[in-house]
Amino acid sequence: MRLGPLLLLRRTLAAFAALAVLAAPAGGAPTPSRATRADALFRRAETELARGTIDTRRMAIRDLEQATLLTPGQPLYELELARAYFLAGFLKSARTRFERVTRLAPQEAGGRYGLGQVWRRDWLKYLDRGSLDRAVENLSWAARLRPDYCDAWLLLTPLLVERGEDRAAAAAASRALEADPARPEALLATGYTAYRIGNLERADSAFTAALPRLKRTVRERFEDIAPVATARDTATLNRLPPADQEEFRRRFWKENDPDLATAVNEAQLEYWARVAHAYFLFFDPRRREWDERGEVFVRYGAPDSSIYNPVNAMVRNATGGAISHANVVQFGTGPAYPANCQVWVYRDLGMEVLLQDRMLSEYYLLPMTEDYEPDPAPNPDSLARRGDALATAAGRGVFHRLPPGVQPLPVSGAVARFEGAVSPRLLAQIEVPGSPADSVWAEWVVLDSTRHEVARAARTLAPSACDPAGRRVADFAADLPPGPYLVGLSARDREGRRGSVRVETEITAGTTPLALSDIVLACGTPALNLEGDAAVRLEPNPGRRVEGAAPLTAYFEIYHLSAGPDGRARFEYVYTVRSAAKDARIWIQRMLAPRARIPEISATRAEENQGPLRRQFVSVPVQSLPPGSYRLEIRVRDLVSETEVASSAEFIKIAAGAAPASRGPPGP
């Protein structure tokens, strides 16, 4: 991002000259010879600064210091010297000169803009809230003094986001776009602030317009999936020809889309919003990259808290023993050197990220160690408790399932596979809490192995047969060829609440001698011809709940039964219900105080059937079971071919009148 171009100074030269006359010392205006010499030094300094080397910058500072001594009170020279100090890293001297400019020319935006730059850099280094507030104050002054100052609005936008003022940040981004509609950075600011206030359509259109217009080094930050993808995916992508890389990235983001039914990809938009924020704060145009702060930010977002040089931060080895203090670095076998460090804390992910500025250049890297992998990763248990989050493979990136401002709608879902006369059939069921007066819409989407859409449907949810007053349900079905699929189920109500679930499944060709469908839990047992070809209508129970004294009802299909000498098939099935609750206590607690074992429920039944297909319901009395998680296993034995097959499904038993919790779809 451009931070106060020299072109700005040249455009205001005339105004400064007039102000200089007004601001001249009481002793009178400088003599023409002193003014002429100062002007020559100023112009030479401009040329030296344009070369951009360390030596020419030092020469420019020397010339500008002489110019300010020759013509005291000239705000143009003071401002140019302040900018030179800032570029050289002399922040205290830069701040002093910028403050002098604001006194000499209080209506000139350049001084306030420079102070905003200084305090912004101070905040990025020390993480001091006061520095952030001063940066916002001065940049706001600069933007008010000069509303067409696009750079001031752009520098202000991410700082307002850091203060939690998303709507003010969106307003600043809009002013930047008004000031310079052709500036791609203004479109970036518009896109990512629009996402943060929940305007996804605006965000998507702004990013789509901005990305092709960015410099290649910047555009690559948005296209790069390496921060959130596995090393294998990144290597595969890099080996592909350029024509195929875009398709690979499209598939990657489709696989990580939280809600497949919507027109936008919420995870990709959140990633772009993070990249834009990291670009505005951490990207170094000279290095053409950001440091590890930007890398961590685009993967996990803003930390819950961050600390500069904490006294207890240590670099640790794999067994937890301390190697050294985090703010001390040793290169090889030489002496130890001081280093600055920041610790970013992600409480909900159970993760602390240590970053070190080993060269004291405000360029942060991960610790150097051979004893453990310093690359941050969420704690698996903490991540599992984040029901609102969707993680990419290996937890390298974590995104929200819902965009900002959208209230969650609890959703339960289930997916089951059946063999069909021509092709396999996929059944999906969805359930949300709701009364008969509630209007809730559901949609399902099925993606094939290439993550292209092969099925989509939508409908209004109907009252559940299990709980007509408290739940709404819908089901969807499609005939699909064998292969892997990604199924998305989404629901929304008229209040704008949304919820979604995703499940990966694979449909296989029915080639085995004996096979079972997935087990579907239902509400009640309908009357049907178990040996007929008529379609079966199931009352959905995707939440897989059984309440109080109600029985557990399950439906399944048996395929490829063998016929005996009389032309009839004979088989038997056994159902068994076992506890699926896991004892989360440590091993010593489990050993010293074992929990009482819940008795199994099991029964066997023999049947005859006309033909190779059998549609079967079972009703299991589970009223004796205490509330908890259970697994139903059904094992079928073909008595003619002496073959056997089994399938299982999990469910939860809840007490009568208890409020059920939503469940995502289990893998079939």
Describe the structure.
Helix content is 35%, strand content 26%. The strands form nine sheets. Strands 22-28-27-24-25 form a five-stranded mixed sheet, with no helix packed on it. A four-stranded antiparallel sheet has the order 12-13-17-16, with no helix packed on it. The protein has a four-stranded antiparallel sheet with strand order 15-14-18-19, with no helix packed on it. The two termini are 49 Å apart. The chain is elongated and about 120 Å long. The model is unreliable at 1-27 (pLDDT under 50). It is an alpha+beta fold. Helix 9 runs antiparallel to helix 10, helix 10 (166-179) runs antiparallel to helix 11 and helix 11 (184-196) packs antiparallel against helix 12 (200-210).
List keywords for this structure.
disordered N terminus, 26% strand, four-stranded antiparallel β-sheet, 28 strands, 19 helices, alpha+beta, 668 residues, single chain, five-stranded mixed β-sheet, 35% helix
| SS-derived structural category | alpha+beta
Largest sheet: 5 strands, mixed
The number of strands is: 28
Helical content stands at 25-40%
Distance between the termini: 49 Å
Unreliable spans: 1-27
Form type: elongated
Please specify the SSE layout and strand pairing.
Elements: H1 6-11, H2 13-22, H3 32-51, H4 54-70, H5 75-88, H6 91-104, H7 109-126, H8 129-145, H9 150-162, H10 166-179, H11 184-196, H12 200-210, H13 216-223, H14 231-239, H15 242-255, H16 266-282, E1 283-284, E2 289-290, H17 292-300, E3 305-308, E4 314-316, E5 322-325, E6 328-330, E7 336-338, E8 340-346, E9 351-357, H18 380-384, E10 389-391, E11 398-400, E12 412-418, E13 425-433, E14 440-447, E15 453-460, E16 462-463, E17 471-479, E18 483-493, E19 498-507, E20 515-516, E21 520-522, E22 545-547, E23 552-559, E24 569-579, H19 587-592, E25 601-609, E26 614-620, E27 628-638, E28 643-654
Parallel strand pairs: 22-28
Antiparallel strand pairs: 1-2, 3-8, 4-5, 6-7, 8-9, 10-11, 12-13, 13-17, 14-15, 14-18, 16-17, 18-19, 20-23, 21-23, 23-26, 24-25, 24-27, 27-28
Helix pairs in contact: 3-4, 4-5, 5-6, 5-7, 6-7, 7-8, 7-9, 8-9, 9-10, 9-11, 10-11, 11-12, 11-16, 16-17
